[in-house]
Amino acid sequence: MAARDETRAKEAIDRLNEEGREPGLGGVIWHELDLKDPRSAKESAERFISRERKLDILVNKAALSVITVLVHPGSNFMVRSRIPAFGNVQALNADGVGESMAVNYLGPYIFTKTLLPLLESTASLDGADVRIINVGSNGYCYAKYLEYGSKEAWNHTFK
């Protein structure tokens, strides 16, 4: 189970073990993964490959909600959303990538892309049934409240 927080991951693993799993399915271990930094996601996948011989299933489930303010370090660029129920103020990282973009898209992409050779080699084994599952959310439903149809609508919404 890949996660940022070891304590929370191990609590989840304990719950899985308490609820019982079918015999012969192997164990669940914690694997450190922080998707906020794309380089860290790649390093995490490389560590996994160095320790494991196969990977049967990869579930990409991490997500952050829509942000309310983007601020790029060293610039005056700022976007404000009028959807107050979403997220907190958040800065772009040194690469100019917002935390939600890194966690929701870029990190999982790099993590998965780096793990592909292991997934492919596992898939070549007799009886293998390899899967990549990407879990989404209904956050896209809120996009209808944003006006991006024209520059004027954008400026009116975010001034």
Automatic annotation (TrEMBL):
Protein name as annotated: NAD(P)-binding protein
SUPFAM superfamilies per the UniProt record, alphabetical: NAD(P)-binding Rossmann-fold domains
InterPro entries reported for this sequence: NAD(P)-bd_dom_sf, SDR_fam
Native source species: Armillaria borealis
Keyword Oxidoreductase applies: yes
Family: Belongs to the short-chain dehydrogenases/reductases (SDR) family.
Keywords: NADP, Oxidoreductase
Region of interest (Disordered), ranges: 1-20
Keyword Oxidoreductase included in the entry's annotation: yes
One Pfam family hit: adh_short
Top-level taxon in the UniProt lineage: Eukaryota
Leader sequence segment: none
GO molecular function: oxidoreductase activity
